[in-house]
Amino acid sequence: MSEDQNKLKWVSSVSELYPAVKGSVREVKKGCGYKSCKLCASGEKHQAYLFTYYKDGKQCSHHVPKPKLEELRKALENGRELERLMVENALVLLKSSRKKK
Ligand SMILES: [Zn+2]
């Protein structure tokens, strides 16, 4: 495949993976702060989701609103697929340089 064809193939597979996200989602238990809350009093607390990611080498996290959870999970899956494609790119690049020499 020519360089241009490879580039077109890359652009189309990447655009299909929009939005691609890198990070992870985990479930956490959070207190709501209401003294009258029975769930918190029982120690069971409330189910919440946190998105954790790295920014400039520092771990950060962001609350995930429940309606956004599925969308975020799909985006994370896209991110993993994108990383797989990037590894493939490296192998293609290394193979093609070997052929030239
Ligand atoms: Zn509560």
Explained architecture:
The chain is α+β, with helices and mostly antiparallel strands. The protein has one domain (3-100). The chain has helices spanning 3-16, 38-41, 69-100, and strands at residues 24-30, 46-55, 58-64. The chain has a three-stranded antiparallel β-sheet, covered by helices on one side. Strand 2 and strand 3 (58-64) form a beta hairpin. The chain is elongated, with a radius of gyration of 21 Å. The two termini are 18 Å apart.
**N-to-C order of helices and strands:** HEHEEH
| Unreliable parts | none
Q: What is the terminal separation in angstroms?
A: 18 Å
* Fraction of residues in β-strands: 15-25%
Q: What would you call the structural class?
A: alpha+beta
In the sheet with the most strands, the strands line up as: 1-2-3
Shape: elongated
Count helical runs.
3
- The total strand number stands at 3
Describe the main β-sheet briefly.
3 strands, antiparallel
Average the pLDDT over all residues and give the rounded result: 93
Subunit arrangement of the protein = single chain
Radius of gyration: 21 Å
Query: How many structural domains does the protein architecture include?
Result: 1
Provide tags for this entry.
alpha+beta; 3 strands; 101 residues; 24% strand; three-stranded antiparallel beta sheet; binds zinc ion
